[in-house]
Amino acid sequence: MSGHEIPPVSGRRQIVGLLIRGLAFWGWLVGSRRRSGMAAEDAAGQQPQAGDGLVYFAGPRKNAPVLRSELPLGGPQHLVWPVAPDGTVRSANRLNQLLVIRLDSAAIAESMRPFAAEDVLCFSAICTHECCPVNMWKAENRTLYCSCHGSEYDPATGATVVAGPAPRRLAVVPLQLDGDRLVVAGPPVGRVGCRKV
Amino acid sequence: MDLNQGAQTMRTSRIAILAGLGLLLATGAAVAREMKSYTPVTQERLLKAEPQDWLMTRGRYEGWSYSELTQINTSNVHKLRPVWSFSTGVNSGHEAPPLVNDGVMFVSTPNSQLIALDARTGDEFWRYRRELPEGFSALHNTNRGPALWGDKVYLATLDAYLVALDAKTGKVVWETQVGDWRIGQYMTIAPLVVNGKVMVGISGGEFGVRGYVAAYDAESGKEVWRTYTIPEPGQPGSETWRGDDWKRGGASVWMPGVYDPVTHVVLFGTGNASPWFGDQRPGDNLYTSSTIALDPDTGKLKGYFQYHWNDSWDWDEMNAPIVADYQYKGRKIHGLIKTARNGYLYWLELNKDGSISFVDAKPYVQQNVFKSIDPKTGRPEYYPDRVPGTGKRAEFCPSLWGGKDWPFDAWHPGLGRLYIPANDNHCGSLEGKIQEYVPGQWWTGVDIPDIGFHVVKGAKSFGEIQAWDIATGEKVWTELYPHSMNWGSILVTAGNLVFAGGTNDRAFRAYDARTGEQLWSFKANSGIIAPPSTYMIDGVQYVSVVAGWGVDPQFQQGLLSNLLGWDKSVPEGGVVWTFALAD
Predict the structure, then answer these.
(1) I need a labelling partner for B60 at 20 to 30 A (CA). Which of A101, B364, B395, B458 fits?
(2) Are strands B66-67 and B491-493 parallel, antiparallel or unpaired?
């Protein structure tokens, strides 16, 4: 039996399970409505969406569009924000912080190529351990490095965890190119953020 | 069974289940223990520090981590057994001692939770869970403990709020914002309460904060005073800063203060200067890496002692010193004893006006940075090649974690001995770069993967417990850990026992305080980095400690795993363990 199969349960247990799931779904529905309601009021808080551009988070080109050709080949990563087509930088929610990295195309895992804009990949910059920023680069391991507890992610294989306490990989954000400009091709794939406690 | 019957049965089942769930909830509520009475904490009780209670992180105002209880002693400690345990349900580094007030225990956990337990049984009275803001993160998610005053319990939260809870119910009475987590300010400190003022300090020395201590009225939560640990232009000490460097100069305050009732000053330790490299902020940089003495009524600075000027090693001196009357080389001193992160042990005098005078200092681990120490002022002179700078790599010992990091040392007044949880034979190397300041972002001048860390070649041990005779200035015994660092705060008792965890093998140990002989040990579920405490209920002495490995010891263990092959995977998970003598 694979880990994803649900073992058979008794009728009563099924009903209890359904009830609990029903309650959980209702809670999620209410929560997501609240969340989307809040987000609708403020595009700056909405998660990255297809058509968003990317702008630099800091540095001399802060808030300038991110161009593929100016990213250093082979790392390090740059922290960026998604920016709506109307120019709203989606920086109201820290969980929207993203990172981009340009890699040797041959090094990018086959499974990650559909998400890449040629040789550039984009991930959530929020560590899945404690939500700290994945803002450092460990050159000797060619890994994305979290500044709080040293979790390391391999960008070429989809930001899988290779060291440290992070429980899961970073969410990937599909990219495409508009000329040389990097553009978001869809919402994040995978869970953004961390589970505290 | 026809369909209708089935539907009916289903409906009945649903009703039964809903009723069952309701009953379960109702029963749960009934079962949850109600705290029937609670003994208010007064100034008099805090001053007395009666041994049946453990009312503050280090047991008493003077920071001794010492208990007068003797029921458990060197002759019977071998009969010590766990009597109950309690899972906090939280992972990561648990760094708070169980506080106990008249049979009620308070334990804080990472991510700003606080649990009230029946200290006799480990049954839960209530739990407070801080709802941290969406997207919140902190470099250190831990907590060093709550504080008690009146009928309330106070918690400094990661998102920089001071919260007052009703000690009986856990309900929030008030909460006051102390700092702004979005610019890197956060709190892990245990508050200190003196005469109804709740004092806390702010963390964030890696994010370009300007540190401070602030006091709040215990009843209303209103801020009474705030004293910055870095002077602004025009104030005394501001001449030790260049231009605007003071605005982001560090000196965070992240460990609890102590109080000296004799001189009526509170003493706090300050953290590293910011960014980490001294050549980026020329000057002595007062009051970074210092002990500061404040008037608890007004926050006025009464005195200070800076252990090392223009810090370039990330050697915070965040721990407040121990306050004690002691003899040193024939002289009676009302003074301070401070095991500094910089690798030296300091004897200081606390004068009547709250000023602090240097008496003496000695290295307690290998330290290769200080060329000399001025015998009058205590000011060190450095070997220039041991001072890291911008574009200049320098190697130095001990590493940035110091001879002793935040774990508490302990003072046994009867024996006149100090017990130090030390780490030796580890060194660091740093090279600075100019980093752009971005509010709330790492801003030290070096990225973590570029921080050098190594061990002394051929070293046979790393973690230690050292016992020092304070009167003679001599080390009298040392316990060496060949395969672990030591992150364990020490508890010492009048039963002449030293209790400590701190090692990566999950052990909690008891030693003879006179000889250093190990008399007892127990394997906990996880590594122990929280301070132990002891107390008495109905004539029975208990020792409690929280296991829960994480944060810096876990990170450092990863480095040592790479260097020495130590097992990286010390298990996590917070559990309160309580021990008493078997019949």
Answers:
(1) B364
(2) parallel
Residue B248 DSSP label: G
The beta strand positions in B470-517, using DSSP E, are: 474-481, 491-493, 497-500, 507-512
Which pLDDT value is given to residue A196?
61
Cα of B136 vs its chain's centroid, Å: 22
B44 in contact with chain A, both atoms CB, cutoff 8 A: no
Tokens found for residue B558: 């990863």
User: Taking CB atoms and an 8 Å cutoff, what residues of chain A touch B17?
Assistant: 12, 15-16, 19
**Can B314 be counted among the known catalytic residues?**
yes
Range with the lowest mean pLDDT among B236-240, B300-304, B391-395, B565-569?
B565-569
Q: Is A57 within 8 Å of B17 when comparing Cβ atoms?
A: no
Q: What's the rounded Cα separation, in Å, for the pair B260 and B367?
A: 30
Helix (H) or strand (E) holding B515: none
* Chain B residues with beta carbon closer than 8 angstroms to that of A131: 135-137
Confidence band for B282, pLDDT divided at 50, 70 and 90: very high
Name the closest residue on chain A to residue B557, using Cα atoms.
A164
Could you read off the pLDDT of B370-424 as tens digits, one per residue? 999 999 999 999 999 999 999 999 999 999 999 999 999 999 999 999 999 999 9
Query: Is the CB of residue B1 less than 8 Å away from at least one CB of chain A?
Result: no
Q: At what angle do helices A11-41 and B3-31 cross, to 10 degrees?
A: 70
Q: What is the largest CA-CA distance in chain A?
A: 63
B179, pLDDT greater than 80: yes
- As a whole number of angstroms, the longest Cα–Cα distance in chain B is 98
Which range is least confidently modeled, B1-5, B49-53, B143-147?
A: B1-5
Residues B114, B115, B117, CA angle at the centre, nearest 5°? 155
What structural domains does chain B harbor?
Answer: 38-581 (2.140.10.10)
Q: CB–CB of A136 and B111 under 8 A? A: no
Residues 6+ positions from B251 with CB-CB distance below 8 Å: B205, B210, B211, B229, B230, B270, B271, B272, B273, B274, B285, B287, B288, B289, B290
- pLDDT band with cut points at 50, 70 and 90 for residue A112: very high
Going by C-alpha positions, the residue among B406, B408, B427 that lies closest to residue B418 is: B408
Q: Which of the residue ranges A6-15, A82-91, B495-504 would you say has the lowest mean pLDDT?
A: A6-15
Any residues with CB less than 8 A from the CB of B264 and at least 6 apart, and which? B295, B296, B354
Q: What is the pLDDT of residue B33?
A: 87
**Is residue B542 packed enough to be buried (19+ CB in 10 Å), middle (13-18) or exposed (0-12)?**
buried
- Are A196 and B111 a contacting pair at CB < 8 A? yes
Sheet of strand B124-129: strand arrangement = B99-101, B104-109, B113-118, B124-129
ipTM for the predicted complex comes to: 0.85
Out of B17, B447, B551, whose CB is closest to A136?
Answer: B447
Alpha carbon distances (Å) from B170 to B74, B128, B318, B468: 38, 6, 30, 42
**Which residue in B1, B137, B450 has the most chain A C-beta atoms within 10 A of its own C-beta, making it the best mutation to test that interface?**
B137
A chain contacts of residue B442, beta-carbon cutoff 8 Å? 133, 135-136, 147
Beta bridge partners of B66: B492
